[in-house]
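Researcher: Let's run the pair from yesterday's discussion. Sequence first, then C-alpha cells, for each.
Model: Starting with the first of the pair.
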Amino acid sequence: MLAYKRFSHFLRDGLVLIALLITWAVIEARRDAAERLARHEDFSIIEVQPPHSSYEVAAFSADGRRCALLRGSSSVANADRAWLRGSVIPHVVANDRYFNPVAFGPREVNGDSEVDSLVRSIAMSPDGKILAFGGDGAITLWDVDRQRIVEKLDCPRIQVACLAFAPDGRAVAAGSETGDIVISDLGGSVRWHETTDGAVRCLAFAPDGRRLAVGTSLGAILLFDARSGTFVRSFKDAPRQGHATQVVALAFRPDGEALATASRVDVKAWDVATGEKLATLPNSDPWGRGWPDVSLAYRPDGKAVAIGLGSTYAPRRGEVRLWRPVEESGAQPLFVDDAHIVLGLSFSPDGQALATAGRDGNVRRWDVGGAARP
C-alpha cells in the first residue's frame, strides 16, 4: 500500500513536471518566434537560381508572383548606369518551376526571331504574362508562357534605359539616357514623345493609369498626363529639385494620391495633387556614399513603403526597411542579409508577404504579416 502511494505521488509529481516543461517549451518557442519575426529571419526561399554573373535589373508582376531578372555581361561602364548585354531569367515565385532563360544581345537569335540591340532594361506586365525588353530604338515584347516574341514597338532614335507598364497592361512607357520619354500603345504606335533635361532613370504609372511620374539624373521628379503627354507639375524640395542627386526609384500609393521617390541617400513622399512634400527619410548607409540599388513598393493598404537597399561595396549588404510616411518616423528594419543584395521588391495583394529579388539571382518570399502591421 505504501509503495502504491509513493508511486502515485511520484506519478503526480512527474506529470506536474512534464506540464511545467511543456509550458516552458511553449513560452520559449513563442519568444523565439517573436524574436525571429522581429529580425525577419523567418523566410522561405521559393525560388533559388544557381549563381551566375551579377544581375542588374529586377521586374515584378503586380501581384509579386512573377519576377524577371536581367543579368549583365560585357557591360560598358557609364557614370551612373551600365549598358547591359545579357540574358533575362524569368522566375515564378509561387511554385517550383523555372521558365527557360531568354538570351538577348546583338544579332542573337532566339527561335525564329532576332533582336538587333543590347538589352538595357526590362519590365513585366501587371499580369506577369509579358516581358518588355528595352534596347536601341525599340521595345521588344516577349510572351513568357509561350516563350516567343509577340511584338516590337518602335522608339526611333532613342536608347531605352528604363521601362514601365501601364496598370491595364495596354501601354508601356520608356525613358532614355538622353532625356526622351515615350509612351507606346501595344498593338499600335507611339502615343506621345517628350524630352526633358537629364537622363531618365525611372518611370511609374499612377494606379488609374492617368498620370506618369518620371525621375531624372538631375534629381527632378516630373508628372505628365499619360494620355496626352501634357506636363502637369514637378515636385520640388525648395530651393532644389525633388532630390539633390539622381532619382532612382518611384512608387505611387495604391490610391494614387501620394508618390514615394528615392535617391541613393534619401526617400521622400509627396502629395500628387499639390506637389507638396509630405515627409523625408534620410537613407543612411555604412559607407557614406549612398546605396547603389534602391527600390520602393507601397504596402497594399497604403500605410507604409517597403524600401529595398543593396550595395556591392565592401562589406556587401542587402536590407529591406519599412517606412510609414504619415508618421514621418524612422524606418523599421525588416531584414538585413549580406548575401541578398536587393534589386527589387513587391508585396502580395494581401500585404502578408514580400518578395525580393537579389543580384545573386535569388527570389525570396518573406512573411511580413505580423511585424509589418501598424
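Model: Moving on to the second of the pair.
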Amino acid sequence: DLASLADNSPTFAALRMVPLVADVKADLVIGNNNAITQVAFDAAGKGDLGDLSAGGISLPIGKFHLGGTYDDASSELKIDDLTIDGDHTRAKAAGSFLVKREGSVVHGIAGTLEARALYFDSPALFAQPVTFSGLVISAAYDRDAKSLNLSRVALTGGQLAFDMSGTVDFSGDGTPGLALKASIAQLPVRELVKYWPLRAAPGARDWIDRSVPTGIIGPLKFVTNAAPGVLDKGILPEDALSLTFPFGNVTASYIKGMTPITEARGTGTLTGDTFDGTVPTANIGMLPLTNGTIHIPNLHLVAAPGYIHGHVEGGMPEILTLINEDPSTIRNASASIRQKWAAAPRSMSISPYRCCEICRSNNSSSA
C-alpha cells in the first residue's frame, strides 16, 4: 500500500498522492562488495491516482502494470512498460532515466518518458472524456537546487498540439516559481474547450464555452515569469504572464439578448491582471463592425468592468433595431424615429454616443 508508506516515514510523503495497492517482485544481482548492482522489478495493482480529499481530483485506476530495470554501473533506470487500464483512465508508457547520486544519496534524476493512447474520463478534470494520442516529457530534477528543468513537454490529441519548456523553482515556501514558454497550434475554438481542464482559468473557459460556438484560434503563445510565491498573491503582476493569440471567423455572444458578433477576426493579449483585444473586422447581424477594441483591467476583481469600443456602419433601420435590443441602454425607440430614419443612406456611420444625441434631439424618452 503505497499511500500508507507516507504515514510511517516522511521520506515517502510524496506517495500520499498515490493511493495504490500493488504486488511487487524484484530480481537482484549482488556484486563482489555485497552491493546491489542490478535490479529487475515488476509491479501490478490497482487503486487511485491523485487527491482523495474533499474537492480533490483523483483518477480511478482499474489495474496497472509497471516493469523495468536499474543498472548501478550506468545509473540508468529504464521503464520498459507502464500500462494503466481502467474504465476511467488508460495509458501506455515507457522511458529511460539517469540517476545522479553519491553513494546512497540521490541528488537528481533526468530522462524522457513517452506515453501513447491516453484516455481520461473524470468529470472533475474534463467536461467530457478525452483521448490524447501522445505525450512526451523530457525533464531533469535537481534535488539540491530544488528545481525542475523541462526540456520539452509535448501533448497531442485530436487537433490539439501543445508544446512547453522551461523551469519550475521549488526553492520557496509557497507556490513554485514558473519560468515557462508554451504554445498551442491553431485549432477550432470548440476543440480547445474540449481539452481545456475545468479548473484551469475556469472563468475564461466557462465564458468561451458558453459564448463562442464557432471560430478558429491560435497559435497561442504563453510565457510565464513568476518567482516562487507570486502565484499565492491575489493580483498577478503584469510581467508574470503573457498570453497572445490571433482568432478568426469567430461567432460570439458578447451580451445576452444582443445579436451575436459573427465572422470576427483579431488578436487577444493577456498580461498578468489585464486583457486587451483588437477586432479589426466583424459583423453584427447585417451591420459591419470595424476598429473594435476590448480592454479589461483588474481581472482579479469579481465581475471586473470592461471597455468595448467599435465602429458600425449601415442603414438606420438596422442600427436602431440593434440598439433597441434588450438589454441595450437605448430601448423602445419610438415608431416616429424609426420611420424618420427608414430612408437614411446605408453608408451612414454611427456610434452609441451619436445614437443618444439623435434620440435626445427628437425628445425620445429612451434617451
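Researcher: Give me one sentence on the second I can quote.
Model: Confidence is low (pLDDT under 50) at residues 328-338, 345-367.
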